[in-house]
Design goal:
single chain; about 110 residues; mainly alpha; Methane Monooxygenase Hydroxylase, Chain G, domain 1; elongated
């Protein structure tokens, strides 16, 4: 049995999203998917740099670039979430709005630099 070092286990990969976005701008989705493909390539490059024992500072610079690219995707996802999912829940009012306010605060906290 694998140890998880006190971290939550990752959800299963197959159909891991049990909730769907209410709306996703097709152009935003395409841009995010393109960004994620580039990020995958960057991560493979970092992996190769580590395998080849490249200079630590060079590897760290590449890691920083990967992190920045992931933050850019995250910003766009938050923008879409606020524009569609959050707006709908807040306009609905009541418990839906209260839950959404809490969710947004948590998301902003998790995604802050």
């Amino acid at each position: 049995m694998a140890k998880n070092n006190g971290k939550k286990a990752a959800p299963p990969h197959k159909d891991e999203c049990d909730r769907k976005a209410l709306a996703v701008d097709p152009e935003l989705k395409a841009a995010n998917l393109a960004r994620l493909r580039r990020i995958e390539g960057q991560v493979r490059g970092v992996h190769q740099m580590v395998e080849r024992d490249c200079y630590c500072a060079d590897v760290l610079r590449q890691l920083s670039a990967v992190q920045q690219a992931l933050r850019a995707v995250g910003r766009e996802l938050i923008r879409n979430h606020v524009r569609h999912c959050a707006t709908r829940a807040i306009h609905a009012g009541g418990a839906d709005a209260a839950a959404m306010y809490d969710e947004l605060v948590d998301l902003f906290h998790q995604n802050a630099r």
